[in-house]
Amino acid sequence: GRAAWASAGVPDPAPTAKVRIGANECWTGPLAPGAAAAAAMIPFGNRYAPHDERGDFIKAVMSVEKVPYDHVAPWPGSSDPLSRSVVTFCSPTRGLVTADPTFELAGRTAEWLKVPVKRVPLKADFSHDVKAMLAADPNAGLYYICTPNNPTGTITPLADIEWLVANKPAGSIVLIDEAYTHFAGVPTASYLAAADKDVIVMRTFSKIFGMAGMRMGYIMARPDIIGKMMRYDGGMQSGALPLPSLACATASLTALDLIAARRSEMQEARGLALEHLRKRGLKAVPTEANMFMVDWKTVPAAKMQQAFRTQSVEIGRSWPIWPTISRITVGSAEEMKAFCEALDKVWT
Ligand code: PLP
């Protein structure tokens, strides 16, 4: 996504594209109650905490996820806690194990810290191969599970995650990144955090909640795990967060009907695109989230990305392990129609 462009010093081409389906953002903005709550907070922006907005947020998480108050830590987005968990639980002698392909941020942070990284290919069903992940480094500090996985949109069964938690080495953590969980609507791993296991369950408001630029997220974990991650400040010791974002997140979390409606809207738009791909004889990885991967057979994915740019459609990138496969984010139905039309122009 965006960070990759920024770090490469390359201007992000997406803002000029008419259809932006490259960065796994939501096709639309915050849920209506969230947007209203955010706007109402602006006049109180002179205070770090006009009332107890942070507490209200945590209570909303408690009501939805059934975790205790002290097991929740809000953050401005999930990138920081993701990197911070690597900083906290990995070292040159306690490595990181991730899947391949998966979201690369943990791996990048680990390499920067000279932490050994093992990348374990997904299984044939595109779930994480938890047994191979443990075997790859039986003494790792952190095992990273992204479910639904970015970029495949595939789910790793909770039974597999439970197996890893039960069999991993002492002193290690299983980090379960559920950035896309609302798009799948499946049971989550939050009960493992509530049960005081060696886990961090991570969420963001950047996806179904349409708040990528507003920066909100949180983790669920045992208080001692959260405490270790807070040992250096980074501006978080005070607990202050951007108030409009906090209020928006609080009001959005409990809007369960609106979340479900957005999930259905996504599924319908995704269905349109997948059906078109099938008709055109192109294979897609079976997905449960707001992204799908298209196999261009012998054509490099980077070349297809360039071709779509000529149609003002910004699709996603590929991962080194699968150089002919592109990740496409599910946009609105209209955007998916535009994607199909562009496809018919560039794939002849
Ligand atoms: N985790 C996954 C799996 C993601 O795909 C992303 C963003 O694309 C993030 C975490 C970080 O997003 P944010 O910092 O916006 O919460």
From TrEMBL:
A Pfam match is Aminotran_1_2
Q: Which residues form the Aminotransferase class I/classII large domain?
A: 46-343
Q: Which InterPro entries match?
A: Aminotransferase_I/II_large (IPR004839), HistidinolP_aminotransfase (IPR050106), PyrdxlP-dep_Trfase (IPR015424), PyrdxlP-dep_Trfase_major (IPR015421), PyrdxlP-dep_Trfase_small (IPR015422), TAT_signal (IPR006311)
What metabolic or biological pathway is this protein involved in? Amino-acid biosynthesis
Q: Name one GO molecular function term.
A: transaminase activity
Give the record's keywords alphabetically. Aminotransferase, Pyridoxal phosphate, Transferase
Read off the NCBIfam families from this record: PRK09105.1
Q: Which family does it belong to?
A: Belongs to the class-II pyridoxal-phosphate-dependent aminotransferase family. Histidinol-phosphate aminotransferase subfamily.
Q: What is this protein called?
A: Aminotransferase
